[in-house]
Amino acid sequence: MNVQDLMRAHPRVRSVSNPLVECIERCFSCAQSCTACADACLSEDTIDRLRRCVRLDLDCADICRATGGVASRRTETSEQVLLQLLELCANVCQVCAEECEEHASHHQHCKICAAECRRCEESCRRAMQDVGGASGRVQAN
């Protein structure tokens, strides 16, 4: 998916910030990683020790998808709502990454997922600074 091209093609968007575009891409990538990790956890023999990981993976995937979707909608954007979602997404990614890191030495899928969650967390935090500190860059007409 080329988020930047889609944003530029939007008839009501004057400009697009790179941190927000990166965040949208990271949110959807993280959602996919978390969904795959949860599924892989369910196939492990040690499922009893991975229940919390599965739950956090699924919660993180849902929140990342929602955040990416809301951030993609540029018509009549509420920066307040977007900032709250970005903060929530960053926080959930942090918690999910911490949980996956607990299992990373035994499960490669958890290691991969933790890394993707960390990338998404950082991207959401950069987008928060950009959206909150430079509201003129991401605007709808």
List keywords for this structure.
141 residues; mainly alpha; 4% strand
Helix content: over 70%
Order of helices and strands: HEHHHHE
Strand content: under 5%
CATH architectural arrangement = Up-down Bundle
Strand order of the largest sheet: 1-2
Number of helices: 5
Shape: elongated
What is the structural class? mainly alpha
Let me know the largest β-sheet. Answer: 2 strands, antiparallel
- Using the CA coordinates, give the radius of gyration: 16 Å
Concise overview:
This protein is mainly α.
Question: How would you describe what is shown here?
Answer:
This protein is mainly alpha-helical and 141 residues long. The protein has one domain (3-134): Substrate Binding Domain Of Dnak, Chain:A, Domain 2 (Up-down Bundle), CATH 1.20.1270. Helix content is 77%, strand content 4%. The protein is built from five helices and two strands, in the order H-E-H-H-H-H-E. It has a two-stranded antiparallel ribbon with strand order 1-2. Mean pLDDT is 88; it is low at 135-141.
